[in-house]
User: What shape does this take?
Amino acid sequence: MRLVAMLLAACLLAGCGDDLADVKQFVQNTQDAYRPKPEPLPEVPEFTHIPYTAKVVRSPFVEPVPELIEVQVAQRKDCLTPQPDRQRHPLESFALDDITMRGTMGTDKQLYGLVQADSGSIYQIQINDYLGLFHGRVVAVTARQILIEEMVPEGDGCWAKRMNKLELISG
Assistant: This one.
């Protein structure tokens, strides 16, 4: 019995020989046939250097002289500027185009405006409240509109007042 088991084991082990050369060759041929060939790279155009030759204006590659900037700011300290230390209202993070007047409420003495921001929230505002991106201050609230005095930068460190309004939109 022991001899039969050994012969059977020897036959089984002989059948596990590594004769897969033809299979390996088939797989290699198949992979070679379907492997895409890379396209050739396009020709790189030759770079031609063109020097910057403007003499009249300041070069954009050099930082501006700090003394000139400080002099310009120092010259315009007597002009209108917004209050930097006042408490901000949540409506100051929205542009006026993103705020819609939805109505009013109140008494004859005090009228409050109801506005809806682009976020969908409804806010109650009154005279001297701020809204909009340009430091807009509410100067009047009527049944049909809210008058706003904005401060827009002029570009030289000063600000200019500009009137704007939100009109009632029904619906």
Q: What stands out?
A: The two ends are 99 Å apart (CA to CA). The chain has a mean pLDDT of 83. Strands lie at 99-106, 111-117, 122-125, 130-131, 136-141, 145-153, 159-167. Residues 40 and 46 are 18 Å apart (CA to CA).
